[in-house]
Amino acid sequence: MDRDEFYMRCALAQARQAELEGEVPVGAVIVHADRIIGTGYNRPITLTDPTAHAEIEAIRAASRYAGNYRLTGATLYVTVEPCAMCAGSLINARIARLVYGTADARAGGIESVFRIADCRSLNHRVEVTSGVLAIECRTLMQQFFQARRGAPRAKTGGAETDRA
Fold first, then answer.
1. How many CB atoms lie within 10 A of CB 86?
2. Which of 58, 61, 129, 150 has the largest CB neighbor count within 10 A?
3. b/e code 28-50 from CB counts within 10 Å (16+ = b)
4. Is 55 an active-site residue?
5. Is the pLDDT of residue 16 over 70?
6. Choosing from 5, 21, 23, 55, which is the catalytic residue?
């Protein structure tokens, strides 16, 4: 198993924790120097906080671990393409690389709707790798929403998120 798949499986474990708590199953881990320094999963309902997305929770944990709000050289692994808020946080945290599983056709801030990670107007750009364990990440999301809505839905190219 390659390194990206290994860490994406760690992010999937975080997503499953979110699902157990009734949250939309999105999980994230931040890696620096081959060590996980932050983890997070969606918790906006639990925390009554619209900013408590998996990526933000992982960035907060990694920043506490590093003792710095800048996470230069770090890679963030997340099961679903980050939204615009989370993409902006990657820029502010100076995350070097983003690896995500499945696209978010409705709210993706990286490639699907917006292109924040490589916007020339911003002072930092993030290297992006997409599609790592995409089928597993997409299936987790689809099954969650099918169960929530109580009826099977047609498969689409991107994940249905309704993240908050």
1. 27
2. 58
3. bbbbbeeebbbbbbbbbeeeeee
4. yes
5. yes
6. 55
Percent of the chain with pLDDT over 70: 91
Instruction: Indicate whether 133 pLDDT > 80.
Output: yes
Question: pLDDT tens digits for 106-115?
Answer: 999 999 999 9
Could you write out the three-class secondary structure of the chain? CCHHHHHHHHHHHHHHHHHHCCCCCCEEEEEECCEEEEEEECCHHHHCCCCCCHHHHHHHHHHHHHCCCCCECCEEEEEECCCHHHHHHHHHHCECEEEEEECCCCCCCCCCCCCCCCCCCCCCCCEEEECCCHHHHHHHHHHHHHHHHCCCCCCCCCCCCCCC
In angstroms and rounded to an integer, the radius of gyration of the C-alpha atoms of the chain is 15
- For residue 109, the number of C-alpha atoms closer than 13 Å in the C-beta half-sphere is 16
Distance CA 141, CA 127 (A): 25
Q: Is the dihedral of CA 14, 138, 77, 34 positive or negative?
A: positive
Give me the residues paired with residue 100 across strands: 78, 130
Task: State the average pLDDT over residues 60-74.
Answer: 98
Q: How far is CA 143 from the centre of its chain?
A: 18
pTM: 0.90
